[in-house]
Structures are given as C-alpha cells and as structure tokens.
Amino acid sequence: MKKWMLLTVFTLLLIAPQIAYSMHIMEGFLPLKWCIIWDIASLPFVVVGFMTISKSVKKNPKLKMLLGFAGAFAFVLSALKIPSVTGSCSHPTGVGLGAILFGPFAMSVLGLIVLLFQALLLAHGGITTLGANTFSMAIVGPIVSYYIFKGVKKAGGPNWLAVFLAASIGDLLTYVTTSFQLAIAFPAEVGGFTASFLKFMGIFAVTQVPLAISEGLLTVLVINLLIAYSKEELIELNVLEKEGKLV
Amino acid sequence: MRDKKFLMINLILGLLVISLIVFPLVTIKNAEFAGADDRATEAITQVDKNYKPWLKPVWEPPSGEIESLLFACQAAIGAGFLGYYIGLAKGRKNVNR
Fold first, then answer.
1. Which of B13, B34, B53 sits opposite A89 (nearest CB)?
2. Do B13 and A75 touch (CB under 8 A)?
C-alpha cells in the first residue's frame, strides 16, 4: 500500500508541469568531482576558441565588430527568460549565430564570458559549475549548430533552413547536455543513469522546444539583417557566396 | 521592392516569435512560470535525498526586482550593441551607394 502511494506521488512529480528545472546548473549543485571533470573537458575547447578568434581578428580587424555582434546576441538571448508550454521558464542560448559565422569553437570564449557574468552578478549558474555550463552551452551547442549548418547547406537545403535548424537544434542539444551532466552526477537509485537522464530530459527538453524554435527564428532574422547590411563581412567569413541571395 | 519583401519576412519572423511566447501564457492557466533556481533543489533531491548543495553563490541579488534589473541591463547592453552595429552597417552601405 505504502509502496503504491510512493509510486503515485513519484509519477505525479514526474509529470506535473510545475516541477521545472531548466537553465544552467546552479552553484553547489554539482559534486566537486564533476565540476573538475567538466572544467578539464572544457579547457581545450576554450583554448582552441581563443586561438580561432585571435587568428580571424588578426587576419581582418574589421571582423572584431562582428564578433562583438555575435557575443551581444548571446548576451541578449540568454537574458530573456521566456515562458514555455510546460508552465515554467527557460532562456535561449544565442550561440548558434556565432557558430555559423565564426566556426564551431569561437563561441566557447564568448559563451564563457556570458556565463561568468551571469554567475557573478546574477547568481545564475555558478563558478564551480562554470565548466559544466560552458561545456553544454558554449561547446556542445555551437559545435552542433556549426555542423548542422554545413550539413544542410551541403545537402542543398536553402540558407534560411540551414540557419534555422542550426540555431534551434544547437539550443536544444545544449539542454540535452545539461540533462546528461545532471544524470551522470545523480543516477537514480532505481534505473540508474537512464532513469535520471529521462527524468531531467523530460523537464529540460520539453520546456526548451518552443524556445529553441524562437531562437531559430530570431537567428534567421538577424542573419537576414547581416546579409542586407553587412554582406562584405559574411563573404569574408565564407558564410556567404559572392552572389549569395537573401536567406 | 526587395527591401519591402525583406522587411515583411523579418516582420513575420518577429510576430512568430511573439506568438510562441504568448501562447503558453494564454493556454496554461495555473502555471507559475517560475524559473529554475528554487526548483533545482527539488529535482535533484528527488533523485538523491541526501544531497546538500555544498556551496552558495558568492553574491545573490537581494530581491527579485534587483535580479530583473540586472537581467534587463544585460539585455539592454546587448541590444544596444546589436542596434549600433546594424545602424553603422546600414549607414556605411547607404554612403557607398
């Protein structure tokens, strides 16, 4: 009898839309071991990102402004907590744009800066969880975005679709990664990693779906603006062919 | 002509985003639309009942209002730069024309 009640309560908790844990992993909520592991995992990507950035800026100092633009976009989008169909809020990441423009690694540095700002001033995320959050938002997200963009273009898909899918799937995969990080640090007593992963995924991924679509649409909008007014920089970055048409 | 079509597309994209944001607000009646922060404990302690967060943030905004002020600043700074860049690029393009 008691077991049944426990099970019912557990199931209710699992499906109740109010139970929402989205966004970054909070300070102190990841065991020290995993904090260090994700710090180490993130470090090489940030170093490579830093080198990519200084290389492309050295080659063409004019791109510095566009780099700032990509950073500003992530800054804005990750400040917007948006309501979702699960009855809770989360925010987009905005890193897909930078990945499309500057390649898969540049955003690791910019994303890290955004996360640091939020951890220090907003108590959002955390210093100890910085490595884990960087890995999901500034490394996995942009890499996924970049290769989806290239893949759709290679398959002959239209520009707008490539941009849309890159940004929205990159956004979604960021939160899948967060679920993975939490599940591997907190495997369930029954069902272990898989059960935890599904639990966190149910909370994260569903909340994030409409937000990911929003991020995709906004990234298409911004790329439209860049194509209209900043075409030379895009051609310089090989994002646009010389006679590239409107996305 | 092309400018007009371009404007229309971006207008539609903007409206789509707004409707995606408004949709859950209108359709879900009793939701709290809470953020993550307080719920984090619940989700994790459900899985591991003995887990205690081992560190508190260095500094926390003293209230929800202050927190939203800081988030608004973050968005404003970013949006300001986005607008500056687009304005500058557009101005440059007009001069070259």
1. B34
2. no
Give the rounded distance of the alpha carbon of B72 from its chain centre. Answer: 9
Residues 6+ apart with CB under 8 A from B68: none
β-partners of residue A90 are A82
Cα A83 from Cα A92, distance rounded (Å): 11
Asked if the interface predicted TM-score (ipTM) of this complex is over 0.95, the answer is no
Tally of CA atoms within 13 A in the half-sphere of B15 that contains its CB: 6
CA dihedral angle for residue A124, residue A127, residue A132, residue A135, rounded to 10 degrees: 90
- Cα distance between residue A24 and residue A19, in whole Å: 16
- Contact residues on chain A for B30, CB-CB shorter than 8 A: 87
Instruction: Give B-chain residues touching A226 at CB under 8 angstroms.
Output: 89
The pTM for the full model equals 0.88
**What pLDDT, on a 0 to 100 scale, did the predictor assign at position A21?**
40
Contact A83 B21 (CB under 8 A): yes
